[in-house]
Amino acid sequence: MDSLGGVIVTQDYLDTLNLNGPEHTSLLGTVTAIYDIGCFFGAVAAFSLGEMLGRKKTVLLGTTVMSIGAILQITAFSVPQMIVGRIVAGIGNGLNTATAPVWQAETSKAAWRGKLVVIEMICNIAGFSLSNWVTYGFSFVGGPVSWRMPLVLQFIFIFILFGTVPWLPESPRWLIAHGEIVQAEQIIADLEGTTVDDPWVVTESKEIQWAAQFERENGMSWIDLLKGKTGAGNTCTIRRLLLGAGTQAMQQLA
Known about the structure:
Blueprint: H1 4-7, H2 11-16, H3 25-53, H4 55-74, H5 79-106, H6 110-138, H7 145-152, H8 154-164, H9 172-177, H10 181-192, H11 199-217, H12 222-227, H13 237-253
Helix pairs in contact: 3-4, 3-5, 4-5, 4-7, 4-8, 6-7, 10-11
């Protein structure tokens, strides 16, 4: 949860980091926005780390990195430390936000996936609203507590992740892609509330195995993918990428 928007207006934060006055406006904006740079690199890294480590370990890694970034921000007494903390926390958040939706889709029934996307957005909006109310409330306190405590409260959600993620099932798709077919079939059966010899589980496993084998045999480079060279005509990948990024940019600039 990025709560710095309400933190940068507190007087003690500005005094501690020596960011008072109009001459520091650009630097103040940089300290705030640099978080998104970390998120970008974290999301990009999730493509390779997520496939190498698995969904659970990637989320745990992202949460650990995010914890380090949060500690750096909480204990910051200088702008360089705050910037490093923002970048590190952004990398961790990028790892998590790029991995969680994929993991969610791979471990949920098809009938539930649309609902879960809506629930995820509701949680995101609720978290953003909560962070704003927290920083607003602590703005009346004064002193270091007014901005350090809202950053400390991030650990509530970090502890929840550390306490729940290890108990969640790994992605059956990732397990099958890495040869763990027996474990994947058991997870599929558990998710469906049936046994591993159920015809539906066997069929689902075979379909995932076929898809994983097809991806290995017909893999392509990221450059070819961005160019739309998928062997099935022009897929307009760059156009889709720009549309997705453009709508997000317009939302931030509106």
